[in-house]
Design a protein that fits this description.
Layout lengths: L1 H10 L35
Length: 46
Amino acid sequence: MSDVSGLVPFLTSDAGAKIFGQALPVDGHTEGLNSSVDASSDPSGE
């Protein structure tokens, strides 16, 4: 939740008003959670 609570005030500020057409991921850094999983493994478990 801290990602959202930091991004909202920035986007509503004068500096944030200059940002448009961007995808800003706010996911709590979950993209790194699966970094130790072997990419060649079958995700279905088969």
